[in-house]
Every structure is written in structure tokens, then in C-alpha cells.
Amino acid sequence: MLRPLALGLLALSACAAPPDLSATDTAAASRAPYPRLLPLGEATAAANAAPRFPPEEAAQLARRAGAIGTPPASGTGDLAERARLLRERAAALRDRQIADQTFPSGS
Questions:
Q1: CB atoms within 10 A of CB 47
Q2: Of 5, 1, 2, whose CA–CA distance to 13 is shortest?
Q3: Are 38 and 47 in contact (CB under 8 A)?
Q4: Where is this region: Disordered (predicted)?
Q5: Cα–Cα–Cα angle for 97, 99, 104, nearest 5°?
Q6: At 34, is the secondary structure helix, strand, or coil?
Q7: Which pTM does this prediction carry?
Q8: What phi, psi does 54 have (nearest 5°)?
């Protein structure tokens, strides 16, 4: 069991790219059609620095969520989740209205 693992690790260590290719890799990454991934520390800092709803809007959103039966969030950090739940609930209500208009239950 250990022998194939050791051989695999040895093969992977032999596949390291020569140092002169790192500049090419960096140039290719800068032209990539997708944004570069942030390291965990930068991603956490960006998430913590993201704009939050003002307290008035947060309270209004909480009232609206409670009015349609969305479970309450634990704090302002859950506002994105609460907004997602509101969108899902609105889409479900819209789908139900369309179904009621398309297939009336009286006929």
C-alpha cells in the first residue's frame, strides 16, 4: 500500500515546473477570463469590509421576511441569506400564481 503511494509522490515531485516558466504562468493568469482567486485571508477581509444594510433597511427586511414566514436571521451578517430566501419565496409565489391562472381549480 505504501509503495504505490511513495512512487506516486516521487513521480509528482519530478514534475515540478522549471523556474523560467513561472513568468509565463503569471502572464497567462493575468489574461484569464475569470477573476483570480483570493487567498483565504484576503477573501475574509473582503467579506468583512463588504457594505452592510443600514439598520433601518435591515429592520424593514426583517419585518418583510417575518411577514412571509421566512425564519429570522441571527444578525446582520445573515442578510444576504435572508434576501436569498425572500427571492426564493417570491419566485415560488409567482410560480403558484401562474399555475393558478393557467390551470384554474374550478374547471
A1: 10
A2: 5
A3: no
A4: 57-79
A5: 100
A6: coil
A7: 0.28
A8: -65, 155
Cell of 41: 485571508
Q: Encode pLDDT of 66-104 as tens digits.
A: 766 655 555 555 777 778 888 888 888 888 888 878 777
Average pLDDT over residues 4-9: 61
Q: How many CB atoms lie within 10 A of CB 65?
A: 19
Mean pLDDT of 53-61: 76
Non-local (6+) Cβ contacts of 81 within 8 A are 73
Which residue pairs from 38-43 have beta carbons closer than 8 angstroms and sit at least 24 positions apart in sequence?
none
Measure the CA–CA gap between 73 and 62, rounded to whole angstroms: 8
Number of CB atoms found within 10 A of residue 62's CB: 18
Which amino acid type is present at position 89? R
